[in-house]
Design goal:
The complex is a heterodimer of chains A (423) and B (415). Chain A is an alpha/beta fold. Chain A contains eight helices and 32 strands. In chain A, strands 1, 4, 5, 6, 8, 9, 10, 11 and 12 form a nine-stranded mixed beta sheet that branches. Chain A has a seven-stranded parallel beta sheet with strand order 16-19-22-25-28-31-32. A six-stranded parallel beta sheet of chain A has the order 14-17-20-23-26-29, with no helix packed on it. In chain A, a hairpin with a 3-residue loop joins strand 2 and strand 3. By secondary structure, chain B is an alpha/beta fold. Chain B has a seven-stranded mixed beta sheet with strand order 5-4-1-6-11-8-12. Chain B is elongated. Classes of the chains: A alpha/beta (423), B alpha/beta (415). The interface between A and B is large, with 38 and 38 residues. Strand 14 of chain A pairs antiparallel with strand 16 of chain B.
Chain lengths: 423, 415
């Protein structure tokens, strides 16, 4: 049976702060060598879905480069394969994508050409492994018009999710967007399976509603539930994580260092495919001390690395120490520098003697207090930190900041901005 | 166009080539030997490549696939595997290097390139073949052969070349005890296609003895091209081990990290190296997919090696998906893929052998792929464990130097 999936990958991801400032959230590096979207793309091909459309809008360059022709996922195919679907001109009502449903609606021409019985709609923002075949079987067994995959979240987290209430058969009876109270803890995973013809009908209907925000979660799903359509909730039992905030991004990365990581990245039956650069094996120099860490090919370690995730090409010089941190591709940590509880983006130059993450978290970040207050330090892409500088907790150094942008040490909650215009 | 000679069985590599060609032997933590030549070709802009294979070629064919890793999966040209084949009139095993090319002469006749690069697939080096073409054209050569300096005590392993002042080759001696010059042939030859086709008409067997040497003797323009970069023939256990461990030097002679000349290989998509609590890794290359709970020193670990708690790897080369169970030890050894070393077993036990007949092992223990080494076993330095050895093959727990367990064929069962 031919199957078709859309991946929504255009979100702004503002809670990820610097990490998604210059790239779409699905393109944010994760887990030592992957991008967040790799999990969803790999789920598709591992489930036998080889016809995938990726809807992009916000800062798509990094994502476009990563997905490319789809080669790592075997999505470079004669028929089907991966297709990027950016907003386009030339229709009567051309516009940017207003919401998730609108993004699909504006690709109706594309959807109509796919003569599949069902359409799978996925978010590119989540970390999980799922065999979508099980979802299709559940959908068919319930004769559903729409099936929503749900995961159980803790009581205190229900106000961050769309919560579904069901009857004993799994049919959805109520949908509550970020409620303070609910009778259920089943949260929507942003994984929707639709009957294609119903979907097209509902999209046309929604597009005609002037007060709709054209979003699957906010508009379409509640409307269908209220109307009594055959919407079912598929309870997904395995690991699923929304890495939408700096804290959840950080914690989820570090969860992969535990004795029982949430996902077995080495499972030969469910490989997470990604665009891998050709890098040599990790080089551990004499005197290196590495424990409880993930270290990717192309890294060179002479110093100390503890409880950290290092992406390809990171260099840790002798006498330097990286602790409890996530350090992305090709970042350089010079002699005697300390990186502690930090998220460091790609290509950052941490000069000798720098202390990144010093002292206590006395103040939240000045620029984004709501997202950066737990003591993490965040450094944007390609920033250059001057020799010997000390940077306090909850501080933020912008992408492409240079030595000249620093006036001295950076206190807790401090902000060093990089140039505005660089991409 | 290039013809790559990659059919050699490499007896000197013992169990490492029991089930693969020399070119397919793993090298440098994630590569195969052939990757160096294929990367050279890719970076030098050579896009038509014939691979001549014969000795247990499955592993090599698997690795090369359609040539994707080297951008050799092309509509025109690309990589072509040239295996021995039958015709109505003859059985077609390749009798030698020149014969292998002669049997595929139609490929050259159809493509009609101006020049043909004939390469050995068994060497580790980084070379821009365009420099060879320059020398060839400048000198209006019939053949240009790349030469590199080797140590006098190594001349017995190589084809040694003497030249006149202008670099014209005057003699080519195969593996002489003593050589007049330090220049060894690298197994890299650039032929005028017409010259090669002409020479192949007499159905020569060996490229050096039956093609090059007669050309030199008859005064054809055979020119040498001096190459001063890294080049290694890793066709013996000693040289293979040394070349691998040299990569651990502070400034290794062979640069694997050069973004302008990446060594391309078939990627296996493994997760990053997982270093666990209590692990200790120093002066080593460890590839993606490894999980280390124990200690690793001065060693090379290929993808997917698992080092259990309290286990230790020292001065060794351990290939893909080998598992060391708790407390196992591998010390001065080469352990091939998928082998399992049981709890507290030791591979590379005791002193190196004194027996000169075992000198080829360089004091190492050698374990073929798919071997199951039982818990507590002692495999001495100088012992050789064949492919697919089973615990029942270890009649005695300790195998001294000189002991050997023969390889099992794939169809042999075993407990």
């Amino acid at each position: 049976v031919s199957r078709y999936a859309y991946i929504l990958a255009g979100g702004v991801g503002s809670r990820l702060c610097l990490l998604s400032e210059r790239r779409a959230k699905p393109a944010v590096p994760f887990g030592g060598k992957y991008r967040i979207i790799d999990f969803t793309l790999s789920n598709c091909v591992n489930s036998g879905i080889y016809d995938v459309g990726v809807l992009t809008q916000y800062r798509p360059t990094s994502l476009n480069q990563h997905v490319g022709t789809g080669r790592p996922w075997d999505l470079d195919r004669t028929h089907g394969g991966v297709q990027l679907l950016p907003p386009s001109l030339g229709h009567l009502d051309s516009d940017w994508y207003q919401g998730t449903a609108d993004a699909i609606y504006r690709n109706l021409i594309h959807l109509r050409r796919r003569r599949t019985e069902h359409v799978l709609i996925l978010s590119g923002d989540h970390v999980y492994t799922m065999d979508y075949n099980v979802l299709y079987a559940f959908h068919a067994a319930n004769k559903a018009a729409m099936t929503v995959a749900v995961t159980t979240v803790p009581d205190e987290a229900i106000n961050q999710f769309g919560i579904l209430e069901t009857d004993s058969e799994g049919r959805v009876t109520a949908f509550l967007e970020k409620p303070r109270q609910a009778r259920s803890r089943m949260a929507s995973m942003g994984v929707y399976l639709f009957d294609r013809d119903s979907l097209i009908r509902w999209l046309l209907e929604d597009a005609a509603m002037p007060d709709s925000s054209h979003d699957f979660g906010k508009d379409i799903l509640p409307r269908l539930v209220a109307r009594g359509e055959a919407v079912y909730a598929y309870p997904f039992k395995s690991y699923w994580q929304d890495v939408g905030t700096l804290d959840s991004f950080y914690q989820t990365n570090l969860e992969f260092l535990s004795d029982e990581p949430p996902i077995d990245l080495a499972d030969p039956d469910w490989v997470i495919h990604t665009q891998s650069a050709d890098r040599p094996a990790v080089r551990f120099d004499p005197g290196s001390r590495v424990e409880t860490s993930l270290v990717a090919n192309g890294c060179r370690i002479a110093g100390r690395v503890v409880r950290s995730v290092l992406f390809p090409g990171v260099v840790v010089e002798a006498g330097a120490e990286v602790r409890d941190s996530v350090v992305m591709h090709d970042t350089f940590v010079g002699r005697g520098a300390v990186v502690d509880r930090a998220i460091v983006d790609k290509g950052v130059h941490v000069a000798p003697g720098v202390v990144l993450g010093a002292g206590g978290a006395t103040a939240p970040n000045r620029a984004c207090p709501e997202h950066l207050s737990s003591g993490l330090v965040v450094v944007g892409k390609s920033a250059r930190l001057p020799e010997g500088v000390t940077i306090g907790r909850n501080a933020r150094v912008g992408a492409y900041a240079t030595e000249a942008d620093f006036t001295g040490d950076v206190p807790s909650g401090g902000v060093v901005d990089g140039p505005e215009s660089m991409h | 166009m290039a013809m790559v000679l990659s059919g050699g069985g490499g007896e000197a590599l013992s169990v490492l080539t029991a089930e693969r060609a020399v070119s397919a032997v793993p090298f440098g933590g994630k590569y195969r030997i052939i990757d160096f030549v294929l990367s050279n070709l890719c970076h030098s802009g050579v896009t038509q490549v014939g691979m001549l294979t014969q000795h247990v070629p499955t592993s090599l064919h698997d690795h090369i696939g359609a040539g994707r890793a080297w951008d050799l999966d092309r509509r025109g040209g690309g990589v072509l595997i040239l295996q021995p084949y039958l015709t109505r009139s003859q059985a077609g095993w390749y009798r030698g290097t020149a014969d292998a090319i002669a049997q595929n002469v139609d490929i050259l006749e159809n493509a009609r390139p101006e020049m043909v690069l004939v390469l050995s697939g068994d060497h580790v080096y980084r070379m821009d073949y365009r420099t060879l073409v320059e020398t060839h054209e400048d000198r209006r050569a019939a053949v240009t052969m790349a030469v590199t300096k080797v140590r006098p005590d190594e001349s017995h392993r190589f084809g040694m070349v003497t030249t006149d002042e202008e670099g014209r080759v005057q003699s080519l001696l195969e593996k002489p005890e003593r050589a007049e010059t330090p220049w060894a042939s690298m197994g890299v030859y650039l032929f005028e296609t017409a010259v090669l086709l002409d020479r192949l008409r007499s159905r020569p067997t060996n490229l050096v003895l039956d093609v090059l040497r007669p050309m030199i003797d008859s005064g054809d323009r055979v020119v040498s091209h001096e190459f001063d970069g890294y080049w290694e023939d890793v066709g013996t256990i000693g040289s293979f081990y040394r070349a691998n461990l040299e990569l651990l030097a502070p400034e290794p002679r062979l640069e694997l990290h050069d973004p302008r000349w990446p060594i391309l290989t078939r990627d296996e998509e493994r997760p990053p190296v997982r270093v666990r609590e209590g692990a200790r890794i120093e002066q080593s290359l460890v590839a993606n997919g490894c999980t280390v709970s124990g200690t690793v020193r001065r060693s090379i670990l290929f993808p997917g090696v698992t080092v259990g708690a309290g286990a230790e790897i020292v001065d060794s080369i351990v290939m893909a998906d080998v598992t060391l169970e708790r407390g196992a030890r591998v010390d001065r050894a080469i352990v091939d893929k998928y082998t399992r070393v049981g709890e507290r077993a030791v591979v590379g036990h005791g002193d190196g052998p004194a027996d000169p007949k075992l000198a080829w092992l360089g004091g190492l223990a050698l374990v073929g792929k798919d071997a199951l080494i039982p818990a507590e076993a002692r495999v001495g330095r100088g012992a050789v464990i064949g492919v697919g050895a089973r615990p029942s093959d270890f009649a005695e727990a300790a195998l001294p130097a000189g002991a050997a367990i023969p390889s099992r064929a794939w169809y042999e069962g075993g407990a």
